[in-house]
Design a protein that fits this description.
This protein is mostly helical and 138 residues long. It is built from 7 helices and no strands. The chain is extended.
């Protein structure tokens, strides 16, 4: 499943196809297969069941939120500024820019997200009787 997913993620490069609906579907199917393979993997569970995995989980949604604006602004500016110097240096600078700025922007958002979830849990516990949750709502 993992191999099929990785193949589909690079379907446009392998098949040398322009970006159209078939390629988008293949990439989406590939990403789905990779996610399912990782979720079902005992090896991935062992690798991520620690502090590093918890930190990745803590930062995953905020990084998802901020990465596209960073790619479209700061990383593209870094790439365009350095592209006359050479493609590999420009690409390295753009990737470094995305990684650094995404982590810097995501950390405060992750803290806000954690407090928000904690607040919602406290409000839900206040409104719902814990014994009722154990018995069910019937």
């Amino acid at each position: 499943m993992l191999i099929a997913g990785l193949y589909l993620l690079h379907f446009d490069a392998v098949m040398e196809q322009p970006l159209d609906n078939h390629v988008i579907f293949a990439c989406t199917a590939g990403a789905t297969l990779v996610i399912i393979a990782v979720l079902q993997s005992v090896v991935a569970e062992r690798l991520l069941d620690n502090r590093v995995g918890a930190t990745l989980g803590f930062l995953s949604f905020p990084i998802y939120v901020v990465h596209v604006p960073i790619i479209c602004s700061a990383a593209s500016a870094a790439y365009m500024a350095l592209s006359p110097a050479g493609t590999s240096w420009a690409l390295t600078a753009a990737v470094t820019c995305v990684a650094t700025l995404a982590l810097i922007a995501a950390w405060p958002l992750a803290m806000i997200d954690a407090r928000w979830v904690s607040f919602l849990n406290a409000q839900a516990k206040r409104l719902i009787n814990p014994e009722q949750l154990e018995r069910g709502f019937s």
